[in-house]
Protein: FecR family protein
Organism: Chitinophaga defluvii
Amino acid sequence: MQADHRHLEQMLQRYLRDDLSKDEVREMLEYIVQHPALAAELLNEDRSHVFSEKLLHLPDLPESASKRMYERLTTEIRSREQAQEEDAMVTTPVRQLHYRWRWVAAIVVPGMIIAAYFWQSGNHKINPPTEQVSVIKDVAPGQNGAILTLADGSNVILDSAGNQQIAGQGNVQITNRNGQLTYNAGHNGTEETIYNTLRTPAARQYKLILPDGSKAWLNAGSSIRYPTAFKGRNREVETTGEVYFEVAHNAFNPFRVKTGSIVIEDIGTAFNINAYGDEPAIKTTLVEGSIRLLTGSNNKVLRPGMQGTIKAGNDEIAVSNVDVAEIIAWKEGLFNFNNLDMETVMRQIGRWYNMEIVYEGKKPEGHFSGIIDRNTNLAFILKSLELSGMRFKVETSTTPAQMGKIIVLK
C-alpha cells in the first residue's frame, strides 16, 4: 500500500505540473479507478480543485461534459467532510460501498466518462481511426419506470413522476411514489395467495419494497414475481434479469429467491443476482450477511465479497472473490467496465439504452475498462469507445417501445 501511495502521489504531482504525457495521463486515470480510496485521500480540497480544472482541458472532452464534471466534483469536495463524518458513524459494508462509489464518480467520471481512459487490453494504446466513418445518433439514457401486473392480469404503468395509490387486493395497500413501489405488511384478507409481477423493460429500473419490508432494486430488462402478503414458513419470490436485494431477516421465515432452477436462501443478507438470458452464466454476489446457493444436488454458502457462478446447463457452483462495489455499480448509477470483453460491455449498454447490438463483421477482441455515469447520453459513450479504433452506426427506433440498433462496423 505504501508503494501504491508513493506511485500515485508522484503521478499526481507530475500531472499538476503538466509533466505527464498523454499515455501517462491514461495510466494515472486507470490507477485512480483501481485505487479510489487512495486517490480521495491524496486529493485534499485545494489539490482537488486544481485537479478537476485540469481535467476540463483533456482532449476529446465535450465542453458540456467538462462543465458538468467540474460542477459535480466541486460540490463533492465541499461536502466531503460531512460525508466522512456520516460514514464514520455507519460502518456497514453497504454504506462503505456507497461512500467509495461517490468518490470514484466525483474524482474520475462525474456525469461522463473520460474518453482517454478506454483502451483495448494487450497494448493499452489508442488505435488510429479506421477509414469507415461512424454514424452516431444520440439516445438518452434509461430512467425509472416499470410495469406492474396485478393478479387479474391487468397492467399498471409506473414511472418516477407518478405518485399514486393502486387499487388494493384484499387488505393490501400498494403505493407508487418517487420511483418506488411499496406494499404494506398487512394480510390480504383471503386464504388465497395473490401474486403480482413487477417488470422493468429495457432502459428502465425500479425499486420495490416487499410486504415484509425487504427491498429489491430491478435493473433494466428484469422482473420479480412475489405474493402481496407472505404466508406460511417461507417467503419466496422469483426473478429474471438482474436484481439487488436487501432482505429483512427473519430466522423463522426464510427468504428464498428462485431464478430458473437455482434457489438462493437468505441467512441475513444483501446480495445481487445477475441472471439475464443472454449472459453465459448466472452470477450471485454477496454484499452483506450470508446466503446459500442451491442447484441440483449442489449447494454452497457464500460470505461477503464472494460470487457464485453457475454456467448454463451445468449444476456446478464456482465460487470466487470479487470487488462487490464493481458488481453493484449499476445500483449506484454507474457502469463499471473493469477489464471486460466488448460483447459484455455492449450487452450492458444495449439494455440501458434499449438498443439491439448488431456486429457487422468480426466481433472486436480485447478488453475494456472505464467507469461511466448511467445518466450519460449514448453518443458520448460510443465516441469514447471509438478511441480504441472501433466504429459504430446507430439506428434509432420510431417509437419508445421499439428497440433501436447499435451496429458495430467492420
In short: The chain has three domains: 2-117, 143-327, 334-408. The domain at 334-408 is CATH 3.55.50.30 (Phage tail protein beta-alpha-beta fold). The CA atoms of residues 264 and 293 lie 5 Å apart.
